[in-house]
Write a structure and sequence with these properties.
This protein has ten helices and four strands. By secondary structure, the protein is mainly α. It has two domains: 110 residues, Arc Repressor Mutant, subunit A, CATH 1.10.10.10; 122 residues, no CATH class. The strands form two sheets. A two-stranded antiparallel ribbon has the order 1-2. The protein has a two-stranded antiparallel ribbon with strand order 3-4. A hairpin with an 8-residue loop joins strand 1 and strand 2. It is elongated.
């Protein structure tokens, strides 16, 4: 039996961009409020945040417009590779009733999955001592202070001094400013996440993802799915295939032809490869690109070999 190819120790070229990431808000790590929250619970909260992109896709909103998600205990067990007891304990750590209050679970009954509301780890509530509404600030020759001071509230010239309501420290939220990586100001990040999710689900359906998982190691299948999703959802103009730069759309058209037998063909070919693969990503990109045009001759040659 030949030994599996040794993976390279370094990343080359654009290989560093081949992965997708789960973002854990820094506040969960650094803020004293969350110091007693376990690391696994923080990771689970990040997974729940990531799942919200699927809710946007399916328009899972309650009558008040709040986003909710579905994430079953079995899914948590599979993702974190843990037992049901631990998965339920981690959910309890995050829960509003038993834990720190980062999620709220609403049971639906009748066999329906529990709705999960992922709550903000920051707050946008404005403390009552913040300066009064804008209509109390007059702009003419002078400007009225937003706060009562020891001096009478009379109009003062803007040039004389800054108004009291410019104290920045009063405007801070309860914990910290919103993490813009989780709540981006523009819709592009959410839109890209939704598009990637659509591409991935379409791909999994076309290649019979569940059947492949029964036949091959899940890590191998998942790696190929992620790699194909990266290319199919890529915004790059070209992709390097077999040492050449090809238009991305040309590569996409070829990858859209891939079905389960093509993925199986590539995985089986890798098992039979005895030479060292220095750049596994480049190897897979090329093998998947060539699969639709080489699978027929490969199996024809195998049949001729077996039957003389």
């Amino acid at each position: 039996m030949t030994a599996p190819p040794t993976l390279p120790a370094y990343y080359y070229g654009d290989e560093a961009e081949q992965f997708t990431y789960i973002r854990i808000p820094c506040q969960l790590i650094t803020h004293p409020r969350f110091k007693h929250l376990s690391t696994d619970a923080k990771l689970l909260y990040a997974l729940l945040l990531d799942r919200m992109s699927l809710s946007v896709k399916h328009q899972w909103y309650d009558p008040d417009g709040r986003v909710y998600i579905y994430y079953t205990v079995d899914e948590i067990c599979g993702t974190l590779t843990c037992g049901r007891d631990k998965a339920m304990k981690l959910m309890a750590e995050l829960d509003t009733n038993k834990g720190i209050g980062l999620i709220e679970r609403v049971k639906q009954g009748q066999g329906k999955p529990t709705k999960i509301y992922v709550r903000r780890f920051t707050t946008q509530e404005i403390p009552p001592e913040i300066c009064a509404p804008f209509q109390q600030v007059e702009y003419s020759d002078g400007q009225k202070s937003c706060f009562q001071s020891q001096r009478s509230r009379v109009n003062r010239h803007v040039q004389d001094e800054k108004p009291d309501c410019n104290h920045i420290e009063i405007n801070q939220p309860e914990f910290i400013q919103l993490n813009q990586s989780i709540y981006p100001p523009a819709p592009y990040a959410a839109r890209d996440a939704i598009e990637r999710c659509d591409v991935r689900e379409t791909l999994k359906s076309r290649i019979d993802y569940d059947l492949l998982l029964e036949e091959y190691p899940s890590d191998d299948v998942e790696s190929i799915v992620e790699l194909l999703t990266d290319v199919l959802a890529s915004a790059a103009s070209t992709i390097r295939i077999g040492g050449q730069r090809l238009p991305t759309e040309t590569v996409r058209q070829r990858y859209r032809r891939l079905e389960r037998e093509h993925i199986a063909y590539v995985l089986d070919s890798m098992k039979q490869t005895t030479s060292k693969i220095n750049n596994i990503r480049a190897y897979l990109l090329t093998a998947l690109y060539n699969a639709p045009v080489t699978i027929g001759p490969f199996y024809s040659a195998a049949v001729r070999h077996d039957y003389g």
